[in-house]
Amino acid sequence: MAFLTLNRTKLQENFTYLNETFEENNISWGVVSKLLCGNRSFLKELIALGVNEIHDSRISNLAKVKEISSDIQTVYIKPVSKRNIPKMVKYADVSLNSELNTIRWISAEAKNQSKNHKIIIMVETGDLREGVIGDHIVDFYEQIFELPNIEIIGLGTNLNCLNGVMPSSDKLIQLSLYKQIIELKFNKRIPWVSAGTSVTIPMIKTHQLPKGINHFRIGETLYFGVDLFEEKIIPGMHGDVFELNAEIIEMQEKSLLPTGTLAANPQGEIVEIDERLYGKTSFRAILDIGLLDIDPKYLIAKDDEFEILGASSDMLILNLGKNPKGYKVGDLIKFNLKYMGALGIMNSSYVDKVIIA
Prior knowledge:
One of its GO terms (cellular component) is cytosol. One of its GO terms (molecular function) is alanine racemase activity. Keywords: Isomerase, Pyridoxal phosphate. The structure is a single chain. With 357 residues, the protein is an alpha/beta fold. It has 2 domains: 8-231, Alanine racemase (TIM Barrel), CATH 3.20.20; 242-356, Elongation Factor Tu (Ef-tu), domain 3. It has helices at residues 8-24, 40-48, 59-68, 85-91, 100-112, 137-142, 169-186, 201-205, 220-224, 339-346, and strands at residues 3-7, 28-32, 53-56, 73-76, 94-97, 117-124, 132-133, 150-156, 192-196, 215-218, 226-227, 232-233, 242-255, 281-287, 299-301, 307-311, 316-319, 332-337, 352-356. The strands form 3 sheets. Strands 1, 13, 14, 15, 16, 17, 18 and 19 form an 8-stranded mixed beta sheet that branches. α3 (59-68) packs parallel to α4 (85-91) and α4 packs across α5.
């Protein structure tokens, strides 16, 4: 049986590291919980850290957060569809928006629910995902800031999420300038410039973050301790909060090459034959996890004594060579995970989720 563990101690230490970093730099922040896919036990662990603001891209996950702790400020972090606005307003205190009509619909629904809903206007800064074009931001704000039951609390942006555009001082200064222009023109205060995500954290350490950036939305670095500029673990943080354990369900010494007429497998792949391997064998282990749960490219082997050969829908195949560590059927193979791998595992109902101290 495959299972995923969340290490409570390592998660706490990562949270403490980030919280101290942000406090030292007078930055507010919230935790992005979408990786947890609404798992109630893991959400409780997150809230127990002392988190007071949780962000997610699924309304059902925010509903679970509110059930666990109604005091948590919940933030919906993608443009909401028209049909989901009633649910979003019910469970999210804040939402990120970039469409005029959508904000008008949110205003009407918030009034209908007798609630005040907070808005962060997303601004396009080059990655070409969601966001209002910068030249249009003043006109955009003018059309929404007096809508009933709506409070504009920030300008925000996303970088590195679609096309891999990295944050820079110039881009973030420009976002801060938009805030200043709006405040001067309309005599209104906008508390947040929410331009910080995990990819922006290294700019704090190198003193490149403009002072106007005062709000971060953090997921990946909390869970994986990673510096996304240099793609390495930040000193003092942990990269293995999550660990995948998969059981060996078959162990046999087999040929290194398939035999018979070759055609495309169910994934559309055709195996390439290396004639140098004819007649050679190795120990092959089959694990009880497959493509239905995770793409092998998102697995990070904790043992350098084996090679991942491939996967079918429900099985992962390893080449153990001569099996120097003596693995046998029933043994567990452990993996660290990349972000998208953990997301796939969390979204799989076939892999158990376990909390360890």
